[in-house]
Protein: Fatty acid desaturase
Amino acid sequence: MTVYETIKADPVSGAIPDDKAMLRAAVELTRDIATARPGIYWPDMLVSAAVGYGALAGAILLDNPWAALACAAVAVLALYRALLFIHELTHIHRDALPGFRFAWNLLVGIPMLIPSFMYEGVHTLHHARTRYGTVEDPEYLPLALMKPWSLPMFLLVAVLLPIGLLIRSAVLVPLGAIIPPLRRLVWGRASALSINPAFERRAPEDDFARMVFWQELGCSAWAIALLASTQWLGWRPLLIAIAVVSVTAVFNQLRTLVAHLWQNEGEAMTVTAQYLDSVNVPPPGLWAELWAPVGLRYHATHHLLPSMPYHALPEAHRRLAAHCGAGSTYDRASYPGMAMLIGRIARSTMRRR
Structure:
């Protein structure tokens, strides 16, 4: 076993004391880069969405199967990047990027049937100091400590996601408008991008409730229109779109699978323990920029600095890595790539047969 593997082999304990020097450095070294820059957010999101929809059109319209397949691959990557701006929407200040939330929902969230309310008010619970890794965390399961069949099931859920989203918006939400118990069930159990099956969402209130109403209305109208379009366009366009979204969801589920080590058994964790249970995949590897775009290759650093805009995370990582040095607590959250991390979790589950 190499030194690298030895460092990574020990399970993360919630009792790990906070590395106060690292936490202080994270704040002090990054103050000057903590402002979201509209000149980066807007072009990145708009170009990603435009390329994604253009490539999706090519996948649907082209007769050459290889050309259509190439377009589908581009659509997956571009729409995946566009969708992941939902993560930024949960962290940036409401007044930081005027109009960005509305534009993203109009161009990406509603057409993909994943409006921002599915993450807003949910993801922040994952970052709550006393909730991370506990049963109250909607985005945590001790996957590394579960049975081997849990990983295939984890990915199967993603494969079926677009079908579930269609049923939710086209059928369940409209029915819920006239059947209150169904409405409460759909909201509580099927309105959040969560992986914890025990999580039940609270009813929305005030301004957030109004935002949810309009986003739900948009999604339902669009989902019904998509299903109705099959009457004159046939099923081929919709099935291709479903396939593209399904692969996109699998990409995101794989990214989620390696975003943490998933070793906590439910106890509250210190900030440093949360950091060490999270994952950075820094350069020189290039592939991580495709499967963990919009700053998510620096997921551990993000847990130290949740409000840091995605475009500043590479520089934040460089500063902290240089300041803390090799072998430091900060360095211990860096890994070489997805394959190694999936293998690590898979081996852990195999020991629990």
Remarks:
- The chain has one domain: 1-353.
- Confidence is low (pLDDT under 50) at residues 1-10.
- DSSP finds 17 helices and no strands in the chain.
